[in-house]
Design brief:
There is one protein chain. The chain is 76% helix and 0% strand. With 37 residues, it is mainly α. The longest helix is centred in the C-terminal third of the chain and has 19 residues. It has one domain. The protein is built from two helices and no strands. 0% of the residues are buried. Keywords: Plasmid.
């Protein structure tokens, strides 16, 4: 899970728009923070 987020952060423009990638990162961070509690 965290590895996927790291890969996405390193390659934000892999054939996707920056907005879509940003939203994915925000969702991943939110899901990770929810799972931590």
């Amino acid at each position: 899970m965290s590895n996927d987020v790291l890969v996405m952060r390193k390659a934000p423009c892999s054939g996707r728009s920056l907005l879509d990638t940003g939203m994915d990162i925000l969702k991943s961070d939110w899901i990770a923070s929810v799972r931590r509690t």
